[in-house]
Design goal:
The chain is α/β, with parallel strands linked by helices. Helices cover 34% and strands 17% of the residues.
C-alpha cells in the first residue's frame, strides 16, 4: 500500500516500482491511499486491477488494486462531484477500503463535547471537532442515534452496517483494542470485515428491516 502519493514523484514511477515487486513474487496485492480520480486512472494504466475482492479472490495469480480513503456517513466526499472517486473505482473495478468508518469515534455518540478529548488528542485540533462546528455535527450524531434506536442497535453498529451496505466493492478495517487490567496488556487486532460473512448478513438484514 502506497500511503499517500509523493508530490515529488509521478504516480507512474511509484506504481511501476511496486508492480516490479509483484513480478518478482515479493508482493501479491497493490493499493494506494488518499488519491484522486485522475491519479487513480494514471496508476491504473500502469497496473490495472482484475478483481473486486481484497481477501477472497480465487485466482492465485490475480493482482488486486485497492484505494484506501475516508468514507462514512460523515465523510461522503468520494461520492460527490467533481471528486467522484467512488464512481471511478467502480468503473475500473478497484476496491474501496474505507478508513475511519466511525468518524474517528465521533459517530458512536460517545463523544459529546470537545472537552472529552485529552490535551494531546489530535482530534482536539481538527476543524470538524472545533467549538464552532461541534454542535452542528452533533445534530448528525443525534439523528444517527435516533435511527439506530429504531433498528435496535447502537449508532456505531448502524454506521458499520451502512458501510457494508454500500456494496461488495466497499470494505473497511475495524480496530479492536482489548485491555487486560491485571497486566495492562493491549492486543490490537485488525479484522477485515468482508471476512465476517455471517456478521455482514446479520447486520444487512437488520438495517433493511
Amino acid at each position: 500500500m502506497a500511503n499517500r502519493p509523493d508530490k515529488n514523484t509521478p504516480i507512474e514511477d511509484t506504481v511501476e516500482a511496486m508492480a516490479g515487486l509483484v513480478k518478482e513474487g515479493k508482493v501479491k496485492y497493490l493499493g494506494l491511499s488518499e488519491v484522486n480520480s485522475d491519479t487513480l486512472r494514471r496508476a491504473y494504466k500502469i497496473h490495472p486491477s482484475i478483481s473486486l475482492y481484497l481477501s477472497s479472490s480465487t485466482q492465485s495469480d490475480s493482482i488486486v488494486a485497492a484505494i484506501q480513503v475516508e468514507y462514512s456517513p460523515w465523510a461522503l466526499d468520494i461520492e460527490q462531484p467533481p471528486i467522484n472517486l467512488l464512481e471511478t473505482c467502480r468503473e475500473l473495478g478497484v476496491t474501496v477500503v474505507a478508513y475511519s468508518p466511525l468518524g474517528r469515534g465521533f459517530l458512536t455518540g460517545q463523544i459529546t463535547s470537545p472537552k472529552d478529548f485529552a490535551e494531546d488528542d489530535f482530534r482536539k485540533f481538527a476543524p470538524r471537532f472545533s467549538e464552532e462546528n461541534f454542535p452542528k455535527n452533533m445534530q448528525l450524531v443525534n439523528g444517527l442515534k435516533e435511527l439506530a434506536a429504531k433498528k435496535g442497535c447502537s449508532a456505531g453498529q448502524l454506521c458499520l452496517a451502512w458501510e457494508l451496505a454500500q456494496g461488495d466493492d466497499v470494505s473497511t478495517l475495524l480496530l479492536l483494542v482489548f485491555v487486560c487490567d491485571s497486566t495492562n496488556f493491549r492486543l490490537f487486532l485488525f479484522l477485515e470485515l468482508e471476512m465476517l460473512r455471517d456478521w455482514r448478513k446479520m447486520w444487512l438484514l437488520r438495517i433493511s428491516n
